[in-house]
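Render this sequence as a predicted structure.
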Amino acid sequence: MKVVGLFFCFLFMLLISSYIYMELIISTLNKNDIVVIAHSGGEIDGHIYTNSLEALNHSYLQGARNFELDIRETKDHHLVAVHGWEQWAEFTGYTDELPPSLDDFKKNKIFGKYTGIDFADINQWFSQHQDATLITDKIDVPQRITSLFCDKNRLKMELFS
């Protein structure tokens, strides 16, 4: 009976060692070979598609350095980070005409607590995080984006045309 107990103890230790070894390999791969992109700024508190300042900060603290933001235009022609206007209205409780003005966009908190960001905020954030790369989505005006972004060497764009 003692031999059987020792055998199972040995087997258990072997399995734990194998698990720890595999976790180490996965961790190393994630750090060296896999490019992680925080989509819409990344998840925050279980919420996705916020494109918020808090999502950027949270994802950065988690180790992300590539950030995809969905860029759209407000009624008064300012570029802001928002996945879609109908979804933003649902997330904020906004009931007026879409798209909103920049002022209305900035006044309305996402889920009552997250901060929507315009292009000035995006530039400020990326200026403070020199190792971060912006990947744009949703808007198809590359010349406008490159002229506005603070460092075109850290800019990648997904374009549809």
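Summary. The radius of gyration is 22 Å. The first helix runs from residue 2 to 32.
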